[in-house]
Amino acid sequence: MIYRLFEQLALAIPKPTTELVYNSHFELLVAVVLSAQATDKSVNKATQQLFAVANTPKKILALGEEGLKSYIKTIGLFNTKAAHIMSLCKQLLELHNGEVPNTRAELEKLAGVGRKTANVILNTAFGEPTIAVDTHIFRVANRIGLAHAKTVLAVEKELVRVIPEKFKHDAHHLLILHGRYTCMARKPLCERCVISSYCEFFTLTAH
Fold first, then answer.
1. Rounded CA separation 54/147 (Å)
2. 107 and 121 in contact (C-beta within 8 Å)?
3. Is the Cα dihedral 60, 61, 62, 65 positive or negative?
């Protein structure tokens, strides 16, 4: 059943990937840090201007924290995020020759990078079958019945356990995009959902 569910999602979303716009691993890392509690749309708007002038750790450090803030001030929590980005740029230069590391342990040591951000980078930049549980995935997984868990980490572990190997790499983006455009928080579009027949919520609420 879970295999068929992901088969249907993969048919409905043929190119599952992030909606953040980036041209390098570093740009992706900055965009993901900025995207916490913000929409991809608002991040893309800000980074379009930022990356045109500063798209490497050295160039962002050269802007200075106040200079960086002027580009990202439209994004929520921009003060904290600016401080994190400045620190992680220093760390990348000092510890990784300016390159984004490709292990969870090294990523999680960077300022502003927690497990979720590390999972996004590992999956999107380095092709690993990790699943970063954001609010969409947390809601969708519990609603469909793929997981029955109350914490982000528990949902992640449950998903890693049940998702078929074939879909592990794309599952992260398939579930996010499904949650963003079909299985919304307030008014899920169950009538046009391709996986409603496999969904616990739909089965329980269908009349």
1. 41
2. yes
3. positive
> By C-alpha distance, which of 28, 65, 63, 66 is closest to 47?
28
Q: Over the chain, what is the mean pLDDT?
A: 96
The CATH 1.10.1670.10 domain(s) of the chain lie at 2-16+130-205
Q: Which of 90, 116, 166, 170 is catalytic?
A: 116
Give, in words, the CATH class of 25-124. Answer: mainly alpha
- For position 204, what pLDDT does the model report? 86
From 15, 134, 157, 168, active-site residue? 134
Tell me if residue 134 is catalytic: yes
Question: Rounded mean pLDDT of 161-166?
Answer: 96
pTM: 0.93
Angle at 95 between CA 91 and CA 97, to 5 degrees: 100
